[in-house]
Amino acid sequence: MANPLLSDRNVEFLLHEVLDTKALLALPAFADHTIETCEMYVQSARKLAREVLYPAYKPMDQAPPALDGGQLRVHPAMHAIYPRLVELGTITATRPPSVGGASLPTCVATLANAYLMAANLSAYGYAGLTTGAARLLESFGTDELRERFMTRMYSGEWTGTMALTEPQAGSSLTDVKTVAKPVENAGHYLVRGSKIFISAGDHDLTENIVHLTLARIEGAPAGIKGVSLFAIPKKRIDPKTGALVSNDVHVAGVIHKIGWRGIASLAINFGEQDDCHGWLVGEPHRGISYMFQMMNEARIMVGLNAVATAAVAYQESLEYAKTRPQGRPLGAKSPESPQVPIIEHADVRRMLLRQKAIVEGGLALVVEAARLQDLSEHATSDDERTRARLLLDLLTPIAKTFPAEKGFESNALAVQIHGGYGYTSEYLPESWLRDQKLNTLHEGTSGIQSMDLLGRKVIAGGGAALRALVDAIEKTIGRAKRAGVPDAWLTRLQGSVTAVGEVTMQLGELGMKGDVDAMMRHSFDYMEMLSIVVVAWQWIVQAAAAKEGLARGASEADRDFYEGKLAAAQYWVSTELPRVGTLGALCRSNEDSYARARATWF
Ligand SMILES: Cc1cc2nc3c(=O)[nH]c(=O)nc-3n(C[C@H](O)[C@H](O)[C@H](O)COP(=O)(O)OP(=O)(O)OC[C@H]3O[C@@H](n4cnc5c(N)ncnc54)[C@H](O)[C@@H]3O)c2cc1C
Q1: Is the C-beta atom of 198 inside 6 A of ligand 1?
Q2: Is the CB of 341 under 6 A from ligand 1?
Q3: Among the atoms of ligand 1, which is closest to the Cα of residue 163?
Q4: CA 171 to CA 157: how far, in whole Å?
Q5: Residue 397 confidence (pLDDT)
Q6: Which of the two residues, 209 and 462, has the higher pLDDT score?
Q7: Of residues 17, 138, 443, 528, which has the active-site annotation?
């Protein structure tokens, strides 16, 4: 059977039984939609993903875009795929009709995008990056900039990029050096500088590309407060002729990547001939705060990339495990007895259940973050919007890091289940493993996300976000109790939530005393601890919905589906939640081996 990319039943489960889609669709912002229109969109994306994007995945991995006389040429398959993504409405699905969008809830678009990403992450990337870049112009650009750039990006005529990173400024964007010099009475700046790793930074899919770029206005203060945001097109419109002419933007080199190979990441030079025009977006020196809007959305997108990449590999290993005959059951003595499919071995099911727990726990988390994004923008009361924003801010680094870190483990399990064949390039799991590694790196490495979580998100507003999380978990526990989820699971979750609260309090006190080093020493362990609890919450949500489904009276296939959910929930609660104690103790212990180790000791 061809790889289904994701379990359709699981997507339906999230849409109908887990997310409160009806309540969301009752909001005025989504008045144009019904559950049927949402389903239709997901189904169209699924069809495109399976029939068009997935068949091109391996060819695109094997023949990455290449430079041809200064112009980057994409894989021929991409020329057929890109217009189909535009036609589906991928770029503007969640945007309002005023800018040509369909105003779909983000959580619905997230489920649709999960299929596209699982099928071919690189192909999706051209559309996804364009949405993010155009969104910045929608939020912060003047009418003129929106007309000049955003409209053409949302229509798919031009694409967009996010141009932040420079060789000396990766995690530390404070150190951006690209310079923008105002041109008197011209309305634009002359930009000069070099960026690196710019994904979709050049291609031959559309005639123009707009780079949303961080740069410093000449004379700006040092540090993060001197960084501004510019829109820099590859080609600019000549005011006299209206034709597109070169804007002095050049590809300086192609990065040779180990994964995500269907889309190019490039070194780009702006202003080699001092003729690169850039347009300031918003106010001077506020570039980082604007970029943060895009980065937060981008972080959740990266979490979804990670889930999707783990999901497609899980589906592949599941099918392989059902069809690969090898060995006999432990009790079968006779060598004459037939071999059994490897899924009959409990140790293979151990790996499959771990993959399922990571993939479906991760997807539920990312979709919940997307639902909070919808509420934070569109809920009708201030109070609801604020609560959703608080929780979303807390969950964002987790929704990015958990699927990336554990997704990599899940992708490695897909290789493992394929045995020696998994270690060959004839089979696909190795390529998804390469693709997945990126997600722990871009949009802020896991280390940086962990420091953001502990240093900013959990302590923001005196711990208000953590209290919002505790409230949400308690609501779930109430629902799960009523549904008949075993008490022992709920007690364990409750105990872990209390433990996280105590650890956070102690670390917060260290911070208040000024011992930031001690507070932050185990931020990565803290991230893992809180991720385990948050994913356990999502597994209890799913267990409650499964119990409710069983109580309604389910078909045999649905009973299997719900039992699978309960097995994965049990697995997470029993094997992962106990680790919260160890990780919490580590965070509180002042254990300082690597912190005090000197560079010369290594
Ligand atoms: C395939 C790919 C695509 C990309 N696409 C884009 C794009 O489209 N646009 C764009 O602007 N950028 C893009 N990037 C860049 C990406 O965002 C950066 O690579 C990332 O932010 C890390 O920066 P760096 O590579 O300079 O690593 P560094 O910042 O040098 O980090 C190296 C290591 O040091 C750690 N570290 C760094 N600083 C600290 C600190 N203060 N405390 C603790 N640990 C620290 C990091 O966690 C990491 O493990 C892309 C990167 C890749 C690989």
Answers
A1: yes
A2: no
A3: 11
A4: 32
A5: 97
A6: 209
A7: 443
pLDDT at 294 over 80: no
Per CATH, the number for 8-153 is 1.10.540.10
DSSP symbols for 24-73: HHTSGGGTT--HHHHHHHHHHHHHHIIIIIGGGHHHHHHS--EEETTEEE
Nearest alpha-carbon partner for 452 in 533, 503, 393: 393
Residue pLDDT, tens place only, 86-115: 999 999 999 999 999 999 999 999 999 999
How far apart CA 357 and CA 354 sit, in angstroms, is 5
User: Atom 32 in ligand 1: which residue has the minimum CA distance?
Assistant: 171
Please indicate whether residue 414, judged by its CB atom, sits closer than 6 Å to ligand 1: no
Q: Quote the tokens at residue 580.
A: 């919260």
Q: 502-513 in b/e burial notation, b at 16+ Cβ within 10 A? A: ebbeebbebeee
As a whole number of angstroms, the distance between CA 433 and CA 410 comes to 9
Please report, for residues 362, 451, 516, the alpha-carbon distance to residue 523 in angstroms, rounded to integers and kept in the order given: 20, 6, 11
Catalytic status, residue 184: no
Task: Report whether residue 447 contacts ligand 1, using a CB cutoff of 6 Å.
Answer: yes
Residue 142 C-beta-side C-alpha neighbours within 13 Å: 11
CA geometry: angle at 45 spanning 43 and 48, to 5°? 110
Categorize the per-residue pLDDT at 335 as very low, low, confident or very high, splitting at 50, 70 and 90. Answer: confident
Q: What are the residue ranges spanned by the domains of the chain?
A: 8-153, 159-285, 446-595
Condensed to tens digits (0 to 9), the pLDDT of residues 23-34 reads 999 999 999 999
Does any ligand 1 atom lie closer than 6 A to the CB of residue 441? yes
Nearest to 392 by CA among 449, 298, 457, 459: 457
Instruction: Tell me how far the alpha carbon of residue 203 lies from the centroid of ligand 1, in angstroms.
Output: 23
CB 532 within 8 A of CB 575: no
Q: 579: which 2 tokens?
A: 């680790």
d(CA 531, CA 163): 30
Please, are residues 157 and 209 in contact by the beta-carbon 8 Å criterion?
no
Q: How far apart are the first and last CA of the chain?
A: 50
Q: In 3D, which of 480, 474, 400, 413 has the Cα closest to residue 442?
A: 400
160, with CB counted inside 10 A (0-12, 13-18, 19+), is buried
**279 DSSP β-pair partners:** 231
Q: Does domain 159-285 have CATH number 2.40.110.20?
A: yes
Distance, C-alpha 567 to centroid of its chain: 26
275 — phi, psi (to 5°)? -135, 35
Cβ-proximal residues to 514 (8 Å cutoff; 6+ apart), any chain: none
198, containing H or E segment: strand 189-199
Tokens representing residue 121 in the block: 């992450």
Q: Which of 61, 159, 165 for a ligand 1 pocket mutation test, highest count of atoms within 8 Å of Cβ?
A: 165
Name the percent of the chain lying above pLDDT 70. 100
**Of all atoms in ligand 1, which is nearest to the CA of residue 162?**
9
Residue pointed to by tokens 């347009």: 279
Ligand 1 centroid to Cα of residue 171, in Å, is 5
